[in-house]
């Protein structure tokens, strides 16, 4: 029998074979001595057929999932906070007591707070992860309540026009926002996320081969992005490395947005540079798979929302009728 620590909080797991089946699960203990004692007792209960499934509250399950899984991923804290809000709404029930009616109550509370369907889905997905883990990995639940995800309309993809791009750059310089000016140029010419651009280190830039290497990103999948002439100029002779924080850049860009009379356009944000980069590529006939690689999307479905912007194949079809 083996016990060993795992996760951020080093909770101990047990690993042994019982009747030809490997048992590998958390003991819920944080010292080797306690974990070994628990594992011995658990094995004895298995052999005697008297194992009782422990019952966890949602709060206890959240702490366990966080220590075993979410603490190691970039969005882990956000997922933790979302489930913490779920607990505040539902009142920390035991996992086995969560019903479909509880989920509808949760859904209603989230919508009443002004959340959109996509945001509600994030809460539901995080709760679903905990319940699935409790059933499939911890074997604490025999069945799960059905979690219905909200339908999300694709919506219109906002992109900056060439005139808007020129106006933004001019207004940045007029306001003395030199760093924002150069950051905007870098974002719209590379499709980087704002966090990726701000985390970019000098060692990530290869001027000899003309590309940048993105190591830290949302999907934790490193990628390379070739440099346009404009992006290269910014990195060689511009304001890079950037000295302002993400929050300060966003505040400056909001002032630019207001000055350009776009205050009510909620999509007039720095992230729209990324949409603009992708949209321009697709319109020029770049294959959607290449766009996926440049953006660093882990799922092609995310990239396919840009595919309707390319009408080249449709034009070819229509020309057949004229042929």
List its salient traits.
323 residues, mainly alpha, hpI Integrase, Chain A, three-stranded antiparallel sheet, 6 strands, elongated
List the helices and strands and how they pair.
Layout: E1 2-6, E2 11-18, E3 21-29, H1 32-48, H2 58-68, H3 76-90, H4 100-112, H5 117-136, H6 162-174, H7 178-190, H8 194-198, E4 205-206, E5 211-214, E6 223-226, H9 229-237, H10 246-259, H11 272-283, H12 288-295, H13 300-303, H14 312-322
Antiparallel strand pairs: 1-2, 2-3, 4-5, 5-6
Helix pairs in contact: 2-3, 3-5, 6-7, 7-9, 7-11
Task: Offer a quick outline of the entry.
By secondary structure, the chain is mostly helical. 51% of the residues lie in helices and 10% in strands. A hairpin with an 8-residue loop joins strand 5 (211-214) and strand 6 (223-226).
3D architecture notes:
The protein has 323 residues and is mainly α. The chain has three domains: 2-48; 58-136; 162-313, Orthogonal Bundle (hpI Integrase, Chain A), CATH 1.10.443.10. Helices cover 51% and strands 10% of the residues. It has helices spanning 32-48, 58-68, 76-90, 100-112, 117-136, 162-174, 178-190, 194-198, 229-237, 246-259, 272-283, 288-295, 300-303, 312-322, and strands at residues 2-6, 11-18, 21-29, 205-206, 211-214, 223-226. The strands form two sheets. Strands 1-2-3 form a three-stranded antiparallel beta sheet, sandwiched between helices. α2 (58-68) packs antiparallel against α3 (76-90), α3 (76-90) crosses α5 (117-136) and α7 (178-190) runs parallel beside α11 (272-283). The radius of gyration is 26 Å and the shape is elongated.
